[in-house]
Write a structure and sequence with these properties.
By secondary structure, the chain is α+β, with helices and mostly antiparallel strands. It is about 45% helix and about 35% strand.
Length: about 90
């Protein structure tokens, strides 16, 4: 698969042949101005549905993803607040 660059945006297109779940791993490696190496990895799982069922499921999938992202954000904020309080008590 080719990765195309347009300014600071890099993208690739994948057209799966079959419905199912696909694991996607993105690995980006770069070099800092001082010569250091930076490496980042992201993982994603997507579900490809058959053409005849893809449209009705899109809204449900969208709502589910937004809900999961919101819940994860709330959990992260909650855990950060607990950690911050714990560190403040130790230093204060």
């Amino acid at each position: 698969m080719d990765l195309l660059a347009s300014g600071n945006i890099y993208q690739a297109a994948l057209e799966p042949e079959q419905p199912g779940f696909y694991d996607i791993q993105v690995l980006v490696t770069g070099q800092l101005p001082d010569g250091g190496i930076v490496e980042r990895t992201a993982f994603l799982v997507v579900q490809v549905q058959p053409v005849e069922t893809s449209l009705p499921g899109r809204s449900t999938l969208g709502v589910t993803l937004v809900g999961l992202i919101a819940a994860g954000s709330i959990l992260a904020i909650f855990l950060a607040a607990i950690l911050w309080r714990s560190l403040r008590k130790r230093t204060g």
